[in-house]
Predict the structure.
Amino acid sequence: MKRSITSAEIESYHQDGYVHLRNVLDESWLKVLSTAVSRVENEADTQPRVMNMSAFRRHLDAKKGISEESFETTGDYLIAHNAWQWNDELRKVAFESSMPELAAQLMNTRAIRFYFDQIFIKPPGSNLRTTFHQDLGYWTCRGDQICTFWAPADKVTLANGAMGYVPGSHLWDEEFKANVFIDRDAIQGQEGDDLPDIESDEARYGVVYVECEPGDVIVHHVKTIHGSGGNVTSDSTRRSIGFRYTGDDVVYHSPPGIPPNSTPVSDTLVDGEPLSGGLFPLIWSKA
Ligand SMILES: O=C(O)CCC(=O)C(=O)O
């Protein structure tokens, strides 16, 4: 049976900038999701589109003059971008599950275009946090109707890397510089405000960590500040996919400092034009 969305869930998304939706993907969709992530995991060593953030962490530390003996990073953190373009299972979940329709209901839009996806794999023993950040600075689009469906393939706990959100931060006026994702340093060339140091005082910002089950989805707005812990367990991998959906009010916008090979960059659209074309496929519209 198709899951529909309640008015309380819609209200919660608009008020807090995120909402935990339980039981969105049933067993058969979870199987497809899990196969999609496993393929990326298996290809991690050979697939140039998969980044290992622990190697990046070492690179950043070396640049700061930290000697190799002092590296404190343990474990891996794998990220893959735009797998919908080469992973059939992932494209199927992104386009054909109930998520596009739920995104339309949440954002109150007549049509949904797929923006891109990211896979996040934190194996046991990874102490790499996802630093608090706002998605907007990384992305080549602007508008209010932009959201992520963060769909875990595993049970997510505080210990293996639950996502944390700053409630209501999507309503703040500021647009923040994107950081290097595993550190607070801003990406070079980024415009915008400096993000406050949320890690140092999570209580002040009211950070809420959300534990969830496979099949659940957490949806967050493009301006909601979020991050996640490392995976301090010895046996529980945390694999998840962020599916990004956009609605009617969204236009192309390519500011300076966009990280290469991550978010989609169009050869044809100019800033201010509505998203269109095969790079941003139309995957759902109101009958
Ligand atoms: O899974 C994570 O730790 C990061 C996810 C994230 O930042 C996102 O989906 O926007």
Summary: Residues 35 and 89 are 7 Å apart (CA to CA). The chain is about 20% helix and 25% strand. The chain has a mean pLDDT of 92. The first strand starts at residue 18 and ends at 21.
